[in-house]
Amino acid sequence: MADYNEGLEKLAELNVDVANDFKLYRLELFYRVYLNPAVKTNAITSNIEETFNRYIIQARTKHLLYMLEDIRAALMQRLVVKRQATMKVTLMLSPRIQSKLEAEKEKATECEVTPSSETLFNVNYNLDQLVVNLESRSCTCRKWDMLGIPCCHVVASIYFVGKEPELFVDKCYYRDTYLSVYAGSIPPIQGERYRLVVSMPIDPPPIKIGPGRPRKNRIKDPYENPKKFGSLTRTVIEMTCSPAK
Prior knowledge:
Helix content: 25-40%
Number of helices: 8
Strand order of the largest sheet: 1-2-3-4
């Protein structure tokens, strides 16, 4: 919230009207301060959909059945490749999350920790004073709350009590969690040549008749001339004149 207020003040210095218009939008839909910490993300984007769309971009140009077959084959292979890559990892966390945690460990050396209890601390970092609660897994900066990855303030507090920061990372980033996500598999299927030929005719779905008397007359246009079928009234008709000769 402090970052939000500072950013809003800077925006008001540039243009007050723009800042007031900005407040009228539903900020909970696109501003980090209003995100739900249970989601474990700090961004509101459509990157996942766009990535998957690019993943199947070639399949989308084909017929519906062949498109679905390409998507099935791609996902079938992806599950195996991801599972094999994860099984090679010997760390507790995934490599990408471990690298982010290492970056926070380096910044933690610049933090000054003052304990209030075994789980509650004051942390001074770059002229800021923040509160870290190891029991509720929260920090004033909300980075740990949002991502589930300890920030530098939390890492410094964890080192103060003589524990390892990896133990305070959210379970969703653990190697075992990744393996459970990719544990399933999509079974292979035979090609068209080896499939059973079914002689059962395919009929169209039954026509469902709705309740009430069926409509006989069509819905007329609001500007349609009631006296002359198929013609409009002169209301809202744009009139043009030919250039003078």
